[in-house]
Amino acid sequence: MERVERKDKTRDIARDKPRDPSRQPPTGAPAAGSEPPAGAGDRMRDLISLCKRRGFLFPSSELYGGLNACWDYGPLGVELKNNVKSAWWDALVRQRDDVVGLDAAILMARRVWQASGHEAVFTDPMVDCTACQGRFRADHVTEELGSLEVCPNCGARGTLTEPRQFNLMFKTYMGPVEEDAALIYLRPETAQGIYVNFQNVQQSMRLRPPFGIAQIGKAFRNEISPGNFTYRTREFEQMEMQYFVEPGENERWFDYWRERRWQWYVDLGLHPEHLAWHEHAEDERAHYARAAVDIYYQFPFGAHEMEGIHDRTDFDLKRHQEYSNKDQSYYDDATKRRYIPYVVETSAGADRATLAFLCDAYDEDVVEGDTRVVLRLSKRLAPVKVAILPLSKKPELAAVAREVREVVRPLGTTQYDETGGSIGKRYRRQDEIGTPYCVTVDFQSLEDRQVTIRERDSMRQRRVPIAELRATLAADLAS
Ligand code: ATP
Fold first, then answer.
1. Strand (E) or helix (H) holding 259
2. Is the Cβ atom of 295 under 6 angstroms away from ligand 1?
3. What is the mean pLDDT of the chain?
4. Residues of the domain holding 181
5. Residue 349 Cα, ligand 1 centroid: separation in angstroms?
């Protein structure tokens, strides 16, 4: 069973004491890693099967037996995840005056990870079973079974090795020679790319605190026990924003950002009762962190972290100042004060958020005696906005239907489906992928130049002139 309790390793080390595995359960939700509700396994199985069948997600390298904990987003998955990322970018960057974007390289100087603490301490304790060769996170086993006496896989006693610290960063070598001097890492988080560009961005954009730098990008962690579909993978995408403020202003901005980030999920359709706060207890936090809170989502396999919001003080910029020997302070010419800004960070996973939106949207109801699977995704996130369905393959209908597709194409991703099957079956196929609107072209359309709009959730149908179709759908999609 998957448990989620690892925190930022650099924080643990900065505290200079072993990580405390006891994490408070989120308010109003089951404890992290708690037994999933009955039927949760079926729900996950149904969702995973839908994702594969309908082109959302495929196991990486499936042709060669798959690569553990890596996933490929198919044609609909990439649309959905792009919509999640673009909704984040819109809320964090485009709709604001005080946040700018960045796209830093994945490969960074090794010194960055020495300064951040990752090289020394981005570790998890690992144990091996000498009987079944299983490999586990020691803290997971202790929490699940109370001790390291019994192997959680084969049940053998006394076969688990002593815990060893395992660094989660993937190593590689820069250039042709595999020597220690050429060692670099795939970044385990995007945040450091922002910290090391603080001066570049501040100066080139002439920014004054408070301001933020946002970034979306891949991160890599050699997780010991990945799993739960795309929840914990070895290659994933983060959406992180570092907000630089004057010391003393951090508390206010922390409160501001935690509310903003919660609301973002709700605005995009997550049921608020499936969300919960997990406040980090004082002994859970690094000594320098003033506050830290996670947003948990009630996944079918338990309540787990989706995003963290942290008040990191001036720790990161100070460390980079120390290791690079370059001044990281900001001079405020209005107040004649020089200071190293404090940072409030919002750190989300694009894959975890996408999974949460999928879990929350998955629904089944009964229509005309048959079970209908429907993804009730918000219109902003739905991978296909409008599907055009000619009632038959007859060329005269196809001509008008193709014309209708061009009318709606500017509204976003559209699908044209004239494949066999009744119109009812084709509606079901669109419901299953979350398409909010279907447009049906029938023989009547040839005479009156009107088409039928059918809504996913209410299944209501209405006739609309083709001349008004785009404006009508644009208004509906924006509502
Ligand atoms: P966890 O305790 O689940 O390992 P974390 O506290 O180590 O997560 P952070 O380092 O705070 O995570 O990373 C910020 C966000 O990045 C997480 O909230 C999550 O959404 C995402 N993330 C982290 N690790 C993974 C992973 N292995 N797979 C998918 N997403 C991840």
1. helix 250-267
2. no
3. 90
4. 9-119+175-359
5. 6
